[in-house]
């Protein structure tokens, strides 16, 4: 009887088809595109043809200093935004997990709510708050003597980070909070008997116990940072201090749409994908070692 | 489940997948060749001119067997057209800036409509027809041009006793005087991302981003004319005589409405935008000719648009028929001018009584007299060329760093020039130095 062996594959079939069609095939197309280029000759009229060009698009992408700078920019962004958001999310999760808070449900909902606002809408909303002539917030700040331009070249990156923190802290908090719920309560009891206070329990028991969830949320935040696109692309329409190649993903988009060069754009996308993969592996490797060390110690 | 039935299920799934792949293949095949030349059918049309919905409804009301479905382009729809065409999707007809057209022609994203538009050729001005003609083929129906004018606040200039500047030297003096009189008020706003305002002054100075030398392109993003305009803009920015808000933002319109911007130099289609976004300043504006360079009477133009048939158009003949009616018929001129805010490139449009109507918003001035005069004084030196999108993005990205003091306009132009040439060469096109 081979019926039981066949059925699981049948159930996997829809996934496999979609996976091949919408993930593997596009990656294949992107790689193929990145190795080809539309070449013309002379003035170009009526001569366009697609030819294999090897790594030409890749060398061009690497020579594009603005594209490379974009990686530095999202690295800086991630180095500040991700730890900050994770600390806030973990802090809130611990707070909600502890018994000290009244109206817990309300506050949890309030923290989570921004996540339900689509990213583009969030960026639009904050965009209004960042523009001096239409923002009440900047008006109030001016009233108390703080004159700040939130869209200046030096500040706009952090204005974007603010939107990202506002949007994503909630979901990370929920994931961490859920992980905390699954920690056996008896552990806290024995810790208390051993004389540990609330902070000691949080630091030495709760956080190590939810390490896998912390790794997961941090990793997806880092990936999200590398892929940064929606917020800056929206804010670009209100400030000229966000150029079309502000982040790697924006470079990909700009090369395809404004530059009308899908081959260069594909090469950039492949580079971005490779960097994302590499960073993810490095983070996993590092944190795996850490969690294992922590587990050994425990 | 018997083996037989199971096999049938697998076969059915396979058939379904194959069928859908085949249909996709078939449909993309049939759309790339215009095999059908039927006199009836459906035309998908994307455009952005205000009031096109009504004109499309008027056409569809004729019941002549050609049904037009209209989609209003907003946001980044314009940027998506190219990707849509390459993917075999996209509309049959689309409104396109004539600056973008050469790139579309070179990449084969538009279809020639030469034989279908011979009857409207003579209704278009020579320069607008030239902007859609490459070699022997016509690739679009011209839809308006953008001659420039200087919109100014009569109340503000009167208040500070500043005469309307006729030359760029007077303009600079006015910029200094008005800002000195009231530090909150600026003569103008320079938006680093608004390429049209740059382009109209380049054209006025007889510069051009592109040219041809034999069988090779020349690139003039940093040509002498551009550097001349750059020097002027540099002075305005260095002396902080202009606001540098990005155009079209709430911040920009707030400054316009608050009377912090005394003049706006832009194209003939801009007044309708002003009416829409700064309604409460009604009656305070007038329009004068664009200030001129010393020793020249030239005006400028930021470019026009055309309605083109894309590669995927199923039936070019009916698409061209509608495009011709929309832009060149006597029935549509008034709506295009008064609702659409277009400055016509058609002879029947230029003769339309709608064009020379006084505008209450501008103190009952007949504003199109100024723009018609500007169109007549625009030099024919500007040439369109390939990779316009790359050049424009390079210029606006670099200009953004100028207004924050990181570099000069000339440095920005040099970088944009290099990027444009680099891109042309990577496309295999010949570039002459």
Structural commentary:
The complex is a heterodimer of chains A (298) and B (433). Chain A has 13 helices and two strands. Chain A has a two-stranded antiparallel ribbon. In chain A, α5 packs across α7 and α12 runs antiparallel to α13. Chain B is an alpha/beta fold and 433 residues long. Chain B has 17 helices and 14 strands. Chain B has a five-stranded mixed sheet. In chain B, strands 12-7-13 form a three-stranded antiparallel sheet. Chain B has a two-stranded antiparallel sheet with strand order 4-5. In chain B, a hairpin with a 2-residue loop joins β4 and β5. The radius of gyration of chain B is 24 Å and the shape is globular. The N and C termini of chain B lie far apart (75 Å). Chains A and B meet through α1, β1 and α12 of A and α1, α3, α4, α10 and α16 of B.
Radius of gyration of chain B using CA atoms only: 24 Å
Compute the gyration radius of chain A: what is it?
24 Å
Characterize the largest beta sheet of chain A: strand count, sense, and whether it forms a barrel. 2 strands, antiparallel
| Number of strand elements of chain B | 14
- Fraction of residues in H or I helices of chain A: over 70%
What is the general shape of chain A? globular
Please work out how many helical segments of chain A DSSP would assign. 13
Task: Summarize the amount of helix of chain B as a percent range.
Answer: 40-55%
Unreliable stretches of chain B? 1-36
The termini of chain B sit apart by 75 Å
Largest interface: A-B, 42 and 53 residues
Taking pLDDT < 50 over at least 5 consecutive residues as the criterion, the unreliable ranges of chain A are none
The main β sheet of chain B shows up as: 5 strands, mixed
